[in-house]
Amino acid sequence: MSILLEIRDLRAVVGEKEILKGVNLRIGSGEVHAIMGPNGSGKSTLSNIILGHPKYTVTSGDILFQGQSILTLPTDERARLGIFLSFQYPTALPGVSIGNFLKSILKAHRGKDVPVREFKAELKSAMSLLDVPDSFISRYVNDGFSGGEKKKAEILQMSLLKPALSILDETDSGLDIDALRIVSAGITANQSPERSILLITHYQRMLNYVVPDFIHVFADGRILETGGKELSLKLEEQGYDWILEKAGMK
Amino acid sequence: MSASVLSAKSSTGLLPDSLVQWTRESAEQFLNELVFPKMTDEAWRKFPLGQLDLATLNKNPFQLEVVEISKETNPSDLRIGTAKSILASILNSAKDNYFALYTLKQTHQIYFYELGEDGTEREFYDFQCKLRDNQNGNIVILVSVAANTKAKFRESYHSISQTDQLHILHSLSCYHLKEGSSLDILVEEEYDENLFHFRFIYSFQEKESNLNIHSFPRGGYRGKQFYLPELNGMGSTYKLMGVSSLVNRELLDIDAKVTHLADHTTSKISYKAIVNDRSHHIFTGNLAIPSNVKKVSAHQESHNLSLNKKARAEANPKLEVMAEDVSCTHGATVGDIDEEQLFYLLSRGLTPSEAKSLLVAAFYEETVSKIPFPETVKLNISNNIRKSVLGS
Asked: Taking CB atoms and an 8 Å cutoff, what residues of chain B touch A84?
C-alpha cells in the first residue's frame, strides 16, 4: 500500500505560541484514520496547517503528500492536488449560490468548465445520498444554514470533488442522530481503495458509522497513542486521563 | 372623458417651455435667498467644493441626448396642473438646497412621465440620457404613478465619450406615487473621469404606496447625491438599495435623508460600496421622524468593501428621531476581503484571483439579484460592476 500523507516531526506556531509539538502521522491509500483528543489539544490546527492556513507558521518538520513536500505550496495548489478539508465551522458566503459555487470549484479542479448535463447528473447523484432538496442549490453557501445543513454542504462538495484525502474536522458536531446517520452515509460512500479519510472528532459516536483503521489520541500538540478501533471504546469508557498520565502529562 | 380616466392613462414627454420657464424663475427666487455652500456645512464637509467653479464649468453648452422621448404638442390642462403641483412640492422641499435649486434654475429640459394602466406589454419604461465629449448636462425628470398602479422605470445616465476637460452634470428626479401605487426604479450611471455630477432624488408618497429604488452608480470625477424621500401617506413604504463602484481617484458622496411624515410608514436603506485604488465613498444616512408621528419602522445599513489599502469608504448613520413609538435600527461595516472566506475558497482549489473575484461578485450580487427587472438587465449590471472594479 502506498503512503498518501506523511507528516514528519511537524512543529508549528501561531504568533509566539507553539501549537504543534512534533506530530508524526502516516496515512496509506484507502485508509481511514481518526484523531481524537481533548479540547484545545491542536487537532483542528493540524487540519488547517495541512491546508496551509496563513495564520500558522511551520517551524520545522515536513508534510509530504504522494511523496512530495507540500509545505511551500499555496493552499489552492494543495487543494487541487487532492486534499479536502471539511471545516468544523464552514464560513458563510452570502451572494454565492451553492450551484455556482460547486460549478466554480469543479472547474478549478478539472481545469475546464464541466458540461451542464454532466454537472447536473453528478450533482443529483451526490445530493440523493445526503437527502437535500433541490432548493438547496439556489441558497447562498452556508448562509443561514443549520448545523446539519452546513455539514451536508461540506460533504456534498467532497462527494463532487472526490479528493484523494478528505480531512473531516468535527463533522459530527452539531448533528442530531438522523443527520449524523445521513452525513456518515455520505462519508462512507466516498471511501475507496484510492481515497483516504482523516476524521477529527471528540466522540466515538461517528466511528460507529465510519469505521477507522487507526485511532490516534492527540494532546498537547502531538500524537500520544495510536491503536485500532477498539481504542475509541476504551476512550469512551475511561476518558483521556490514563493516556495523559502514561505520557507524564498529568 | 372623466378626469380620473385621463389620469390613469400613461403619457410621457417634455414639458412645455412656459412651465420650464416658471420653474426656472421660481427656483431663482429661492436661490437668491441662499449663499453658495461652504465646506464647513455639514452636507458638504467631505466634498471638495473648492475644486468646483460653476461659472467656468457652465460655459459649455447644456446639451443632452435623450432616447425615447417626444416633444409634447398639446398637453392637457390636467397634465400641466399635475406637473406644476409636483414641481411646487420639489421647490418647497428644496428651498434650502443650493444645488437642487441651481439645477431647477438652469434646466431647459423637464421630462414628465405619468404612468398608468396603458395596456401595453412593455416590461419597463426606459429613460436614457447620454452625455457626449465635454458637454454639460442639466436634466429634470418627473415620474407620477397613478393610484393603484404598478410600474417599473429605468433611468440611465452615461458619458459616451472621454474628454480631458472638466465638465458637469446636474440631474434631478422626482417620483410621485399616488395612493396604493407601486414603483420600482432602476438607476444606472456611468460617468467619464472628468465629470462633476450632482444628483437629487426627491420622492413624495401617498397612502399605502411602495417605492423601491435600485441604484448603481460608477465613475465620474467628483459626485454628490441627495436622496430626499418624504413618506407623506399612512402605510407608505420606501426602500433604497444600491451598489456604488469606484476606482482611481473617484469620489462619490451620498446623503440619504428619509422623512417620515405619516403613521405606519416604513423605510429601509441597504446601500453598498466597492472602492478600489485611491477612490473615496461616503454614505450618510439621515432619518427624520417628527414627534407627532407614530408606528414608524426605519432601518438603515451601509456595507463597504475596500479592495485597496489606499481606498476609503465611510458610513455615517445620523438619526433625528423626535417620536417615541418608532422602531429604528442602523448598521454599518467597512472592510476588505474577509480572510476566512478567502481561505475557504482557496481550500476548494480556487486561485487567489478567482477567489477574490467570486467574493467581490458575491458582495454586489446580493443586491443585483433583488432587482425586479429582466435577467439580461441584471446580467449587464453585474458585468459592468465587475469590469469596473476588477478590470475584467
From this structure: 347
What is the residue extent of each domain of chain A?
3-91+164-246
Which sign does the torsion angle of CA A199, A205, A207, A210 carry?
negative
Q: What is the mean pLDDT of chain A?
A: 92
Q: How far apart are CA B271 and CA B287, in angstroms?
A: 15
In which element (H, E) is residue A188 found? helix A177-188
Query: How far from chain centre, in Å, is Cα B87?
Result: 18
CATH class of A3-91+164-246: alpha beta
Inform me whether the pLDDT recorded for B175 exceeds 90: yes
What is the dihedral angle through the alpha carbons of B271, B274, B279, B283, rounded to the nearest 10 degrees? 10
Cβ contact B350–A87 (<8 Å): no
- B6: pLDDT confidence band, cut at 50, 70 and 90? very low
B188 contacts B216 by C-beta, under 8 angstroms: yes
Closest to B305 (Cα-Cα) out of B286, B330, B269, B279: B279
Q: Does B390 touch chain A (CB under 8 A)?
A: no
Residues 6+ apart with CB under 8 A from B87: B19, B22, B23, B26, B104, B110, B142
Q: Is the pLDDT of residue B124 over 60?
A: yes
Neighbours of A79 (CB within 10 A): 25
Biggest CA-to-CA distance, chain A: 59
Nearest Cα of chain B lies from the Cα of A45 at a distance, in angstroms, of 14
CB within 8 Å: B344 and A87: yes
- Between CA A168 and CA A220, with CA A229 as vertex, the angle to 5 degrees is 60
With CA atoms as reference, report the closest residue to A7 among A76, A57, A71.
A71
Phi, psi of B147 (to 5 degrees): -55, 140
pTM: 0.87
Judged by DSSP in three states, B247 sits in coil
Measured CA to CA in angstroms, residue A209 lies from A84, A185, A227 at distances of 20, 7, 18
Query: What single letter denotes the amino acid at residue B345?
Result: L
Q: Other CB atoms closer than 10 Å to residue A204's CB: what's the count?
A: 19
- Give the E-state strand segments of chain B in sequence order: 11-14, 65-67, 110-115, 125-131, 137-145, 150-159, 167-177, 182-191, 195-205, 210-219, 222-231, 237-246, 251-260, 266-275, 280-289, 296-306, 312-321, 326-335
Distance from CA of B340 to the nearest CA of A (A): 7
Distances (CA, A) of B357 to A56, A93, B209, B235, B380: 25, 13, 38, 41, 17
Q: What is the pLDDT at residue A158? A: 95
Alpha helices in chain B, H assignment, sequence order:
3-7, 17-31, 54-57, 77-93, 98-106, 339-346, 352-368, 375-390
Strands A3-14 vs A57-65: parallel, antiparallel or unpaired: antiparallel
The answer to whether residue B355 neighbours chain A at the CB level (below 8 Å) is: yes
